[in-house]
Every structure is written in structure tokens, then in C-alpha cells.
Amino acid sequence: MTKADATPVLELTGIGKEFGAIRALHDVDMQVFPGEVVGLMGDNGAGKSTLVKIIAGNFRPSHGEIRFAGSAVHFNRPVDARAVGIEVVYQDLALADNLTAAANVFLGRELKRRFGPIALLDHKAMAARALELFGELRSETRPDDLVKQMSGGQRQAVAIARTRLSNARLVMMDEPTAAISVRQVEQVLGLIHRLKEQGVAVMLISHRMPDVFAVCDRVVVMRRGEKRADKPIHQTSPEEVTALITGAKEAA
């Protein structure tokens, strides 16, 4: 099936957001397809964060329509977005340093075994499932590893494994390669490739041009609340994207 025949996993039409007299977003249209990695770029204040929060259910749009897997959706809170298959991996990852990788993967969704009226955590089952998820991501992270002893790349693997536990169809990643080593950057980009191979759509919010051009199929550039470009990665260049971000070029 070609992209032209596929139903977008996410489709935004005319999305706008106002905070009183401040217009944060203006008529943004966007599509993301299954197994596609889309880079979302723009300077601070460009509207990226507002757009992500609308998709994730933190904000309601002032106007416009969101469709997910072909159906119109209305999110009042983040749990509504998660229910349809949207997960966000935030820059701080929201991991518990004092817990193991497996415990973090299942945090808030623990598996339990019942013995009559008593329910106990099923650590063995959670460790086994976490091991499967890390295997799918080709990560060296082990279920019993403590998060506080992990590298940045391993921490990302734990956060991404958590999204796979819920069978996410769209994963939005906020600056996943910020403040980590070159080797760890390669690990994280590899994790994004694994998600793509599994048919998961990924939206990569990043300021790092090399990462976007290494892993993305398409790049969307925001400036002053408007979408200024939406191009296949092979039809643009870092120089053009930089010009769009800074305003040296208005649109492409």
C-alpha cells in the first residue's frame, strides 16, 4: 500500500489556538502516516509545544478538527489521547530513578496476581514482558537495571518501551537527544527506527538538524504559530530549514 492509499494515523485541519488576545496557532494542517517519522522544527515560541499539547490532550483547540485513524476525535484530557493510541515521551522522561527498568515500564499499569482477596505484584511477568519490549527495540537495557544507573540512551529505551506496552500508534518525542553523548544519540535514533519498522508513527520535536535529517521522512517547520513548510526530507536541506526557522525564508 502506498502512502497515497493509506489513511493518516493523525490528520489536523485548520487547528488554531488562542490564549485571550494571543494567537499561539493559526490554521495548522498536518498529516502523519503509519510508520512515518515526521520532524517538527521551529524556534522557541514557534507554536510547536502548543501543537503537541493539543494532540496530546493537554489543550483543546480553539478551532479546527483532529482526526485519528480516520475518525474525528475530541480530547478533553491526556488520558483521552492515550486511549486512542497517542503517547508522548517528554524531555524529562518522567522516570522514577529509584526503580528498575521493568518497574518504570509498568508504572501505574502494574500486573498483579490474585490469591483470593489478596493481590500481589507479578514482578516475574512484568520483567518477562519488559525483556520482550527491550528485545523488540534491540536495546541492551535489562529489566532489573536501576534507572539511576542508566545512560541517556537506556533511559529513552525505558520510556519508549512504556509506549509500546500500550500499543501506541503515534509516539511524539520531545527533544530526545538533548544533552546526551554522540553514542547515545545513535542509540536513540536506532530506537526511532525500530518504532518505524513496527509501523508506529513518530513525531520528532527537535532542534538538532543532524538528527532530523538522519531519521525523518518529512520535516514540518513552524514559525510564529503558522506552518511554513511541510516537505519530504530529501526535497529540502539543513540550510533551507534553518532559513525557514529564522524567517530568512518565509515559506517552502
From TrEMBL:
Protein name as catalogued: Sugar ABC transporter ATP-binding protein
Keyword Mitochondrion: no
Limits of the ABC transporter domain: 10-249
Described purpose of this protein according to its UniProt entry: Involved in beta-(1-->2)glucan export. Transmembrane domains (TMD) form a pore in the inner membrane and the ATP-binding domain (NBD) is responsible for energy generation.
Record keywords: ATP-binding, Nucleotide-binding
Domain of life: Bacteria
CDD domains registered for this protein in UniProt: ABC_Carb_Monos_I (cd03216)
InterPro entries membership: AAA+_ATPase, ABC_carbohydrate_import_ATPase, ABC_transporter-like_ATP-bd, P-loop_NTPase
GO molecular function, one term: ATP hydrolysis activity
Organism this protein belongs to: Bradyrhizobium forestalis
